[in-house]
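Study both lines:
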Amino acid sequence: MSVTNLIYWFQILITVATPINVSYNQPRFSSCAIWDVNASTIITSTPIGSSPYGLFINTNNTIYITSRKKNNAQIWTEGAISSTNISSFSLNASAGIFVTNTKDIYIDNGLYNNVVVMWPYNQMTSRIVMNVSGRCHSLFVDINNTLYCSMGDLHQVMKKSLNTSVDILPTVIAGSGVSGSAANLLANPYGIFVDTNFDLYVADSSNNRIQVFHRDQPNGTTIIGIGSSNSFALNDPSDVTLDADGYLFIVDKGKNRIIGSGPYGYRCIAGCSEISNSTPDTLSGPFIIAFDSHGNLFVLDTNNARVQKFTLKNNSVACTDPTTIQTSITLEDSTTSVQLTTTYVESAEFVTTVIETSTTSLFNDQSTTVVTMLTTNTESSSSSELLSTTANMTVETQSVYFVPQKCVDSNYMGLSCNQTSNSCDMLLPCQNAGTCYFNVNASDQYFCLCNNGFNGTHCQYDTRPCSPNKCWNNGFCTATSSISFSCLCSSAWQGVYCQTKVNYCGNVTCYNNAVCRSLLSDYKCECLTSSFSGRFCEHKTNSLVTKEIITKTLTYVAVIAVATVALFVIVLDVLKYVFHIDPVYQERKRLSSHRKQCASVQPKPRVVLRPVYVN
C-alpha cells in the first residue's frame, strides 16, 4: 500500500473516530415531518435591498446575508430586530457567503474584483483568500478547510485549500468552463454542498438536475432531474442542502417551490402551488435555503427581497405501523384474480397510501406483474380522512426466464422501449460539447465531431490558444491565431502567462539611502530615519538642514586654515630657493646662537674613575 493510500485511510479513521462539528445546521427529521404552509417574513426588503443572493445560518441560529444593492454583509442574531453590517468599499454586488466554526466570514467579491475575501472574527479588515475569474454564486468550506466556489457564469466549480500560507491557484473540481449536459459538464451551477465524505452536490440549474461528484471523480451522477432514474422533474434548481440523514432539500427556483426527500421519496414542502407571488404561502424566484437548529426552514425569496421562515410543525410524530388492505383486480386473458397490497402509512398530520407490486401465475410459463403506485399526502386532523388520490398502473407480461423485450424500433430498448440503443446516447462519450455520431450499421461504433479547439477520440484534449486558466492572476486571454495567444495582464502582473509580479521598484530611485518596497500595484520608498520624508524620501527636516549648515561652515573654516598655512610655507620656500631670499635667516641665526649659548652654560657631567686591577 502506498504512502498516499495510508494517509487517506488514516484520515478516514480520524474522521470516524472524531466527532465532526460543522458550522451549519443539519437537523434530523421524522419521516412524517411537515412544515407550516404559511411562512412568516423574518427580514424585509428595507434592510437587505433588492435581489439578495447569499444566505447562511450557523449553529447559533445567527443569520448572515449578502446585500448586492447595499454592497455589504449583514449579521442578524436570533430574535434581533436590526443587524450588524460588514461594510467595505471593496465589496461590490456580493453573492455567496459562508461562515466557519471560528466565525470567520467568507464573502464573494468576484463579479467586479475577481476575489473571495475573508473577514476574521472580531476584526475590522478583510484579506483575499482566493483569486477567481468571476462571481461565486455559492461558497462552501468543507471539514478539511477547503474553500469551494460555484461560478455559475463560467459553468464550473473551483476549490482551494486554506491550510497553506502559500498563495496557490484554485483548481477546477467540476465542470470544464463550457456549458453542457454531459456527465463532466455543468450549465450555470449555483448552489453547492459538500458532505463529510467530500462528495460535492451541485444544483446544475440550466440542466434542471442535481449532480453529485464523488471525491476525485471528474464525472458527476444525476440524483434527481433530467437524466436520473427519478421521475420527479425540476425546473432551474438553484440550491441544494442535506439533512443529518443525507436526504436532499432543493430550491426549485423555476417552479417557486422547495422540494424535500425522505424514505418515501421526493415531495413538495413549501410553495407547492408553484405560483409566483408575495403571499405567505407563495414564493417568487427563491434562491437559497438554510435550516436553523430547530429544523425551521429559511428561504431567501429573491424576487420578493425577503427572508421567509417556514416553521417545522411537528417533528416528533412518527409514522404509525402500516395498514394493509387486500383488493382484487381481474386481468384480460387470465383465469386468476390478482391481489394488490395497499399500504396506508398514517400520522396525525397526513396520510400516505402506497399500492405495492403484486405477481400471480397465469397460463403456461407466463406471469403477469401489475405495478401500481398510488400515493396520497393529505394534511388532515384525522388519520382516517383520505383526499385526492392519484394512481398509475402498467401491466406487463414476461417469462419466468429473462427474455429481453423486442421493440418495434430497433433503435430503442428497455421495458418501455424508451431508451435509445445507440452508443452515443448510452455512453455520452464526447466531451467538451462534442457531437457524437454513431454507425447505423453497427450501433456500438461511433465517432466524435469536436468543436474548434478540441481534439482526441472523445474531444478530451483542449488545444484552444485561450483554454481556461491559460492566463494567470485574472489575466485576459486573446487568441491572436489558431495556435498563439496574448495575455492582457492586470496592473500588478506581467509575463507571457501573467505569472510574474511587476517589480515597480525597477526604475525608481529612492533618495537618502531609502529602501524601495514593491506593493500590489505600486511602490513605496521607506525612509531609514525620521529626518527624511516625501514620496522618494527627498525632503529633509529643518533640524537636519541646520545641522548640515553648521557642519559645512566648520568644514569650510578648517579647509581655509589648512590652505593658508600651506600657502605660507610654499611662499617661504619660493623666496628662499628661487629668489634666494631668506626672510627668516636672521631669526634662524639668532635661534642657533641661543642654542649654542645654552649648551655651553650647561655643566659637564662628572666622571667617576674606578681603577680595576688586572692580575
Observations:
- The mean pLDDT is 81.
- The first helix runs from residue 3 to 17.
- The two ends are 111 Å apart (CA to CA).
